[in-house]
Every structure is written in C-alpha cells, then in structure tokens.
Amino acid sequence: MHIDELDFGTLSMLDVRGTQIELLRAGSGAPLLFLHGLDGLEGAAAILAELARSFAVYAPSHPGFGGSASRDGLNRVDDLGYFYLDMMDQLGLDAPVVVGASFGGWVAAEILTKEPRRAAALVLASPFGLRTAERREQYVADIFMMSRKELGERMQVGAPGPLQDIMNLPEDRLRRAMRNDEAASHFGWTPYMCNPQLADRMHRIVCPTLIVWGAEDAIISPAYREAYARALPLAEVASIAGAGHRVHGDQAQQLAARITDFAGR
After folding, report:
1. Engineered SS bond to 61: which of 66, 80, 105, 195, CB 3.0-4.6 Å?
2. 191-207: per-residue pLDDT in tens?
3. How far is CA 240 from CA 8, 106, 220, 243, 260, in A?
4. For the whole model, what pTM was predicted?
C-alpha cells in the first residue's frame, strides 16, 4: 500500500475487532493519535509530516474512509468513539496526545467524553460535533448542499486542496475521495454534523485542551465557536491567521508548532 503524500511513514492495515482499517505510523517520541477530517488521511499529510518530527504519530483512516472498511453497527460518531477506544487498547495507547481536525475533532471529543483520562492532552482544530443549528438559525454551513468547487473554495484560503476538483485524479485516488464523501454523509447527514447530546457530556473531558480555529473559516460561525468555548470553559482557545476551516492544510507548520508547544507544557 502506498500513497505518495504519506511516504514519510508506514501505511499498513490493522484489524480492529474484525474491521480492517488503514493506519499510518510515523516519527518517534511521545505517542500522538491524529484523527483526520473530511479530506481523509492524505488530506492531512502536511500536518502529519510536521508532527512526526516531534511525536510517534498514529493516524488511522476512519471506518468507511479512504481504504478502511466500513462495518455494520458503526452508524454514528458516537459509535466511532468506542471503536477508537478499542483500537487504542489494541495499540497500547494509554494516554496519547489526541489531535482531531474538523470531523476528526468531533470523533476526538466523543472518545474523551467516554473515557476522560485516555489523553495526555487534547487538541481540536475546527471541530464539528455540537448542534449546528437552532430552529431557523444555522451555525455551520451545509457542506452537503455545496458543489465540490464551492466546498473546496470555502474550506481553505490557500491553494486548492483535496476537496476541490477531483475529476483529474487517477482512478484509485478518485475512489478514495468518493468513499470519503460517502462516509461523511453516512456519519454526518442527520442530525447534521452533530451529536445533540455531546454538549451535555463535554464536562467529562478533564485533560488539558486546546481549541484552534482558522481566522478565516468560512464554514464555522462565531456563534458556534462560542458554543464550543462554553462547553469546554477551561480549554485554551487560539485563532490562526491565514487559515480557513482546513487549518491543517493552510497553516500546517504553525498548527504543528502550537500542538507541540501545548502538549509539552
């Protein structure tokens, strides 16, 4: 198995209670579990390469994403929280640094509300997971109603990323991109990109937590960011200039530096 962007590490398959998932391992040092966003594992290549300079990075493709198998019974992000606790047990990851980007931030929050002491530190970059709307007020743009071009343009402020034009991709990469889209819809279609119970469970997260937003995020509203701050009142909050929703794509070096500094305190 080989993906050019991930050639700084080893990409292999891992069986987690009968489900085969892709797992990238790279670097050395304190363990860090990275949970990718809507752009898949390859979309996080830049930040993973940076983090591998300081950490032993473990980065899975979520079930149904990329080359990972889907499984009956994994229908909600709440389910993924338990799935990853099983994977962490299997890998001996007792309390790694946990980093989640976008959709992966939601997954990370679900894990830590279930077993609060399973992270040495938690970093949420542009996380989904809380209620995205109240009655007629929308706090998070509806990504499922956008064309791929519009979504790509709104996801980052830099060069076009993996969520933009995919029609020129080779067949194997196109297949991965379409699987990512399908899995995102499976987990996030309804209720839209949230677990309505998550906010009431966030008080269970007891590890040091950093929430990072892109200063130019065109997906997440200020009201939604404020809701996250209320749900995690002890968390440190940072904004990174020159970054949209894909902070890890627009400002990989700066985000990695923030994570390294925060985890090392």
Report:
1. 66
2. 999 999 999 999 999 99
3. 26, 19, 14, 6, 15
4. 0.96
